[in-house]
Amino acid sequence: MEWRDEGIILGTRKHGETSAILEVMTRAHGRHLGLVRGGRSRKQQPVLQPGNRVDLLWRARLDEHLGTFQAEAIEMNAARLMDSAVAVYGLQTMAAHLRLLPERDAHGGLYETLAVMIAHLDDADAAGELVARFELLILDELGFGLDLSQCAATGVRQDLAYVSPKSGRAVSRQAGAPWHDKMLALPAFLQRGSGLRADPAALEDAFRLTGFFFTRHVYEPRGLEPPDARAGFLAALRRHHAPGKVPAAETTGQ
Prior knowledge:
By secondary structure, the chain is of the alpha+beta class.
């Protein structure tokens, strides 16, 4: 068995004295693992870092076997991402979400989205919005997508302010007013075509929204805890947006 594909590295772990198990998100073969012989060598280690985009050749005797990877760098993103706590935790969070999907199931749209996000993940002002939207995509791929297109009660598409915790559908401000204390806030930037940017309060609402449905539909039924990386990502975002934060150029003397 053999195939060639493009992939983004999600993580590695040691195997024996010199090899590594590589975990990648591929364009056509989904999330996939394979053994890289000599993966801990000086030559291979810089290539096999999370966030890097690689050309992959996978071989195995049978399709169900772990198999071996040969990986060649296409785009070296890891060094850039490692300079930002937001980027590091963001990538780890997305990797944790991708592990909720069945291994080797193709999700071409998620791969393309991941590639775009990695290009901008070290921009902390954009990363929060990107990861929040990625979480909505994962919920959709898992079969628990939210309907944020129109009000569940009236069908209107304007002034959507809430999401029903029962149905996962949007509710307009007027229709949801009598039950606003029981509703989840719908940040305006998550609505398709809004063109709006998220402030820190909107980001908190967005991750409270996605976190609620991850817990209800995914974590609790599977007996899982939310990934630690997600908490780390949110903490890094809060530090970035903290009032009076000193710009990076000033802290480094540039």
